[in-house]
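Ticket #346: bound-state structure for nicotinamide-adenine-dinucleotide.
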Amino acid sequence: MRAVQYRTIGAEPEVVEIPTPEPGPGQIRLRVTAAGLCHSDSFVMSLPEQQYAYGLPLTLGHEGAGVVDRLGDGVTVVTVGEPVAVYGPWGCGRCHACARGAENYCVNAAALGIAPPGLGAPGALAEHLIVDDVRHLVPLGDLDPVATVSLTDAGLTPYHSIVSALPRLWPGSTAVVIGAGGLGHVGIQILRALSAATVIALDISEAKLTLATEVGAHQALRSDESAVAAIRSLTRGVGAQVVFDFVGAPPTLEIARQSVAAGGAIEIVGIGGGLLATGFFSTPFGASVRAPYWGTRTELMEVLDLARVGAIHVETEVYGLDEAPAAYRKLHDGAVRGRAVVVPSA
Ligand code: NAD
Ligand code: ZN
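RESOLUTION: The complex was predicted; output attached.
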């Protein structure tokens, strides 16, 4: 089968021919119908050799959807031909976190060598994908896999973050979204669907600010030195009850620190290399700072249901497998509108 692999540290991913995998006991093989490209892949491929811990060659793709096409021994529950979305942050399935569906916070995954597809295990940017357990499959029903595959990360990650912050997002509150890219443009819609908060989006690209407004942001501002004063002014000096930073770089964390309200929350979702000092001489009284990771199994079901009722959607750019390296280049350059999705059959 064809697959998109990261094979050499520092080099571009390559489209290669590899053996089609067979599902082992308890595993399920999917024929991939769609796979999303995430900025985290760019982050992984930017790591120097000493910090790179995902194995080589690595078949990329941690946002996957497919049709069940072969069952390993002992697999019941799902049937061949069923369309599914893949829950990516695989855990041990047995610890307290996993039992609650929060496999993203599994306490055993690292020690057991369990890694998400595309971030250690072979990923979804291929014609076929092995999923290790039926727990990690959510029925897609009649949802279009190309339109919804990115909800498995670009939807689930902001959803998980926003749900935790919802008690602060009362009517009259303000939510700031920094970075209106793949995650951010879905995050804006989730905020509009779940809360009555005023949503202020920040980005460095005019095109992304336009997109932010189109998907529901009340205000769209340039992410520069003027942003803090603008947020303070729009909130009558109070600041934002919650700042969602989908960039996580030093300058955006500084905007978050200066624009969050007392008692508010900063959610650092982006992996932009920034660190935020928290304490009496940094963040406002009572403000909390959190760096959430991905989301839970039930939250993925909820995100898909939000799409099913038409409350959220993903803006997509569709590519074939052969075009994946070029699509990653475009993502790296900040030029993808919404999410780049690879369709292996295209
Ligand atoms: P993306 O490239 O699609 O979007 C990033 C957006 O940020 C772009 O619109 C870009 O113009 C904008 N941007 C860049 N610098 C900015 C700045 N200084 N101020 C404001 N906006 C700026 O990326 P994505 O796939 O949406 O991922 C966003 C981040 O979230 C990445 O760092 C990614 O690694 C991370 N991520 C984290 C998790 C998690 O579990 N915490 C999950 C997925 C992705
Ligand atoms: Zn991701």
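RESOLUTION NOTES: The first strand starts at residue 2 and ends at 6.
TICKET STATUS: resolved
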